[in-house]
Amino acid sequence: MYIFGMESSCDETSAAVIHADEAGNLTIRSNIVASQVDVHRLYGGVVPEIASRAHVEAVSRITREALDTAGITVADLDCVAVTANPGLIGALLVGVNFAKSFAYANKIPLVAVNHIHAHVGAAYLTHQGLKAPYIALVVSGGHTQFYRVDTDTKYTEIGGTRDDAAGESFDKVGRVIGMPYPGGAALDKLAYEGNPKAYALPSPALAGDSPDFSFSGIKTAALNLINGASQRGEQINAADMAASYTDTIVKGIVKQTEKVLISTGTKVLVMAGGVAANSHLRRALQGLCDKHKVTLVVPPISLCGDNGAMVAAAGYFAFMDGERAGTDLNASAYD
Ligand code: KG4
Ligand code: ZN
To answer: Are 95 and 193 within one domain?
Structure first.
């Protein structure tokens, strides 16, 4: 069967077609991403109204492109999956309303997908044997959470950030040290050129048994160091800050993940989301999983950021579970 996936929760409009065989193996047939990053870069972050407008402009074109690239027609589609929450409400509404009309007009079943589940869904596209139960760590621009995934559609949050997300904090510090938006990927590279011990920063990992995080403290500490230096007419070393910041965040995530691995006794850990592209984090988490003899599953970097194929993958499992959305489907900014 063919599943169409539509993603518009933030600053990426994406349409994709995936194929599921009888055994449930998922393969990507097309995955078209229209990124708005260049537009938002002018403002140093995502401007919601501009994002909604750009989604409207891109949505029909990329849908056509996704079908053409997959070499199929609308009649071949068995399911339309769309991100319905969480995200920017105006941005989500564009995708949801498009998908509703597209599904209704062509008499194709519609399923609503949670964006976090979709990030995890990306892992099934390249790891065919993956099957719940497992633990998922979603690290993105808006989320840093642990989930117990009992079935391929049943997620229970078991910990996570109490304030900012890892990606958001990378972007904020990246901006202040002069990286273009979004700073995460640039900070990843710059960190190789600096000394990770140059600046002492507070860990985002909460102490004790808690697997939770707080990224606001480390973010404020870094901003205070940068601003304090500039008030004295000095400049911090950007590479040293990138290295210290990345190192502290990666160590904090590893520490909390270790608590979760031990407390749950899981044998499989899936890491997903935009920040899962971070090379330092990928390496460190692999080391942790090797130590605990846990299989680490991480999507390739090309599928870590927002894309339609991951929505189609999560949509496939929801569809197989019998979930269906009607024309009354609404978007929600919340999880
Ligand atoms: O999952 P995503 O595309 O969107 C959300 O659902 O939030 O994640 C975007 C986030 C941004 O904060 C971006 O800076 C971050 O992922 N990111 C990275 C890297 N690549 C993207 N953060 C750290 N290292 C990277 N290599
Ligand atoms: Zn995302």
So the answer is: no
